Amino acid sequence: MSGRIARYNPARVYELVGTVPVADPTRVDAVVRAADAAQRGWARTDVADRVAALRAAADAVEPDLPVLAELLARESGKVLADCRGELGFALTFLRWVADRAPRVLADTALDDAAGRLLLRRRPYGVVAAITPWNAPIILSLLKIAPALAAGNTVVVKPSPLAPLAVDRTVRLLASALPAAVLQVLHGDAEAGAALVGHPLVGKVAFTGGAATARVVAAAAAAQTTPTTLELGGNDPVLLLADADLSPEPMRRLVMASFATSGQVCMAAKRLYVPAARHDEFVAAYRQAADEVLCLGDPLAAGVSMGPVVTAEAAARITGLVEDAVARGGRALPVGRADPGTDLRAGHFVAPTLVTGVPEDAAVVAEEQFGPTVPLLSYRDEDDLVARANAGELGLGASVWSADEERAFAVARRLEAGFVFVNTHNRTGMSLRAPFGGVKRSGYGREYGDEGIAEYAQTCVVHAPAAFRAGGAGAAANAYPSA
Ligand code: NAD
């Protein structure tokens, strides 16, 4: 890939939304060197000054939110209200980090009978932030905000499938920061590889797919560069026998699968209902879906689901549904279409609920990352938990029950980084709750104090009591006592 990336609107594929230049390896090198040159000065500033700069950076973006939201909707196919929501949430997160980071990053000093101990939180240096297309603003800010607060400088490489709003956001943020503290460059695997493999990069923060993650982690390992990896999930939804199937929770459950046309890492991707409530669930779910799902142009009023990101994604998801039907399943269309949208003009895929499929069908066993979700029934709690925990992914899960204690007890049995109770997906997130996967869904955390601490290394200064002035002394090769 060289020259410029041209991004067309997935809802109207003939509409060019914008272009960005591709960074060749020489450009990547120059950007990283500038970030490295700026880093020590940035790290020397007091954390209070760094977070003040982050607040000013948030203020610099705020007036541009309407422009950014429309740009994001047109390049990604996400509905306009979701884009506004993502951008607002990203600024909320940035300001939350500005408030919280000084406490998380503060030195810890101990001076007692055992000696004098100073724990310092030092930055890694230059952080390479590599992000996917599906929530590109918040996923970039989740790395930028804590990394900058901790005294790192940051180079962001967004996905070529949604580079425009990230480019504009990063430039606005950077306008309030010292030169080269925050930069953006563009490209796909070649630019990404040049960035990850650069010897002056101190840490790689990656969000994306498992196959890319393995390449990224291997390239980083070649330089012993630490990584955090936030990867995909195949989140199960566990509806217990007493789950509330009334319209309000059902609407929430439908959106948990179909927001962003299902292209969300923590979307509800497998629905498990008690066998005795299967038919009742299908009726309640279809009714709720018909109310809340409207497929159409992301800029049109009343639309809640846009196209998928590319023609390849549309073909892959359609193939999953066809395979499910070939294996004995039924594909039940849900929701409605916006009458004002020409659905042939973009990569639109009608939302479906798939029933009657075996557990090893691809639509169940793999992350669909699109607008289809399988419904499965279970016998008892042990059967449910075993099937929910099957597979190599462990990002999110949810338990739905009228009895919160019971929901928490089941949640404790799940192999997932984040278990939601009576909700799923973004409605269940919390700024203070660390988010990330177990098993092959990655490692490292975003959000919460842990998400800030990811960007600092604890370094120690220690004067053991025995060797301080007036100390008792110890043998020259003594081990420490407790
Ligand atoms: P992707 O893996 O195709 O791309 C992610 C990023 O990696 C892009 O910026 C891409 O250009 C870059 N890249 C590609 N090859 C590279 C290389 N060799 N070296 C360095 N960078 C390289 O992912 P995608 O399709 O954009 O996103 C979808 C995936 O992301 C899904 O699996 C989804 O579940 C996951 N995801 C996870 C989270 C989370 O927080 N856990 C959030 C959103 C998305």
Automatic annotation (TrEMBL):
Active site: 230
Superkingdom: Bacteria
Keywords: Oxidoreductase
PROSITE patterns: ALDEHYDE_DEHYDR_CYS, ALDEHYDE_DEHYDR_GLU
GO molecular function: oxidoreductase activity, acting on the aldehyde or oxo group of donors, NAD or NADP as acceptor
Residue ranges of every copy of the Aldehyde dehydrogenase domain listed in the record: 4-458
Family statement: Belongs to the aldehyde dehydrogenase family.
Protein name (database record): Aldehyde dehydrogenase
Protein source organism: Catellatospora chokoriensis
